[in-house]
Amino acid sequence: MQRYNLQSSLLFILGTAVALLTSATSSAIAAEYVESVEYGPLTIPMTWNAQASVFTVDVNIGNTNLKLIVDSGSSNQVINDSTARLLGIDTSKLPEVGKGKDHAGNPVPIKVLAMLHASMASHEVTLNNVVIIPDNPDMSKLGIAGVISPQLLFDNPIQLDFAHQKWVVNPKTKPFVLEKTSKAYWYKKNKIFTEITAETRAPVLAMLDTGSGTTKFEADYLGRSLKEMDCAVRGVAGCGKGQRDDTPTRISFAGKELTLASVVLQKEIRHSDKTDERALIGMSILRFCSITINHRLDEQIGIACMNELPKN
C-alpha cells in the first residue's frame, strides 16, 4: 500500500503564513477562532487514513462534504485552492499575507479568508481566518481538502480520543476528568507541548502534532547520524521530511514505556522558542492516545495512552 507524507508538504507551505498570522495578531485571532457549545456533549467521528497515517473528519461547507485532517500542529484552519474554487470563493480578491513554497519548492502566495460557515456532526461551526494553500498532489489523491485545528475550533473542553476514533466537545460547565500522566504546556502560538524521553536520555520538549504520521527527533539527541546528502542536513528550503531511521527506539511518554519500530531524524526541530525542544510527537504514538484540553492552561491539559502500542 502506497503511503503519503502530507506533513512535510504542508509544513513548508504553511510556515510563512502561520508565522505572519500568529506573530502579528496571535491574541486577536485566538479570540475569534473559537465558539462555545452550550449543550452537549457533541461527538464528532474521526476516520483513520492508513495511507497518510492521520485522522480526518467530515465537514460540510455550503452543502459540499469535505475531508479535513485533524491537525493539532496547525495554528490555522486550512483549505486548498481547488476546494476554494469548488466552494465558489474567488481567491484573487482575498488578501495575501505572505509567501510559502509548494510541494516542489516553488514560491506561492498565501491567501486568507475571514470566515467560513460549516457543520460537523450536524452542529453549525464557524472557521475563522482560513488559510488557502496551493493544491498538493498527495492530498488530492487522498481526497483531503485541508486541515482543521481542533484546539482552536471550540472554546470548550475537548477530548481527542484517537483510540476510539472520536472527538468529544463538552459544555463549559462539564470539564473532563483529566488523566495527569504527562506534563503538558500550552504555547503562545496555540500549540501543545509535552515532555518525552528516548533511549533513557534526559527528557526533552516535544510538540503534539496529530497532522504528522511520524514521530521525529533531532539526530544529535538520539546520538545518531544523518546522511550527508540528506536534505535535513543540507537545510534545503522546504525540507521537512527528514530521514527515516528503522532502529527500534525506546521511549517514555505519558507514563508509558514504548518502543517505536521507526522514527524520523532531523537536524533541528523548532516550533517554539524553547531551547529544550528536540522532538515532535506524531500519530505513530498519538493514534493510541487521547488528548484532553479543558482550558488553554498548562494545568488543564491531559494526555493518556493505551498500555501497549498495537503491532499494526
Describe what you observe in this structure:
- The protein is an alpha+beta fold and 312 residues long.
- The protein has seven helices and 22 strands.
- Strands 12, 13, 14, 15, 16, 17, 18, 19 and 20 form a nine-stranded mixed β-sheet that branches. An eight-stranded mixed β-sheet has the order 2-3-4-9-5-8-7-6. A five-stranded antiparallel β-sheet has the order 1-11-10-21-22, with no helix packed on it.
- The protein is globular.
- Keywords: Hydrolase, Protease, Signal.
The Rg value, from CA coordinates, equals 18 Å
Give the integer mean of the pLDDT values.
82
How many extended strands? Answer: 22
CATH superfamily of the largest domain: Acid Proteases
Count the helices. How many? 7
CATH architecture of the largest domain: Beta Barrel
- Would you give the CATH topology of the largest domain? Cathepsin D, subunit A, domain 1
| Strand residue content | 35-45%
When the domains are counted, the total is 2
Unreliable stretches covering 5 or more consecutive residues = 11-33
What overall geometry do the principal axes of the alpha carbons give?
Answer: globular
CATH class of the largest domain: Mainly Beta
Return the string of H and E elements: HEEEEEHEEEHEHEEEEEEHHEEEEEHEE
Compute the separation of the termini in Å.
Answer: 13 Å
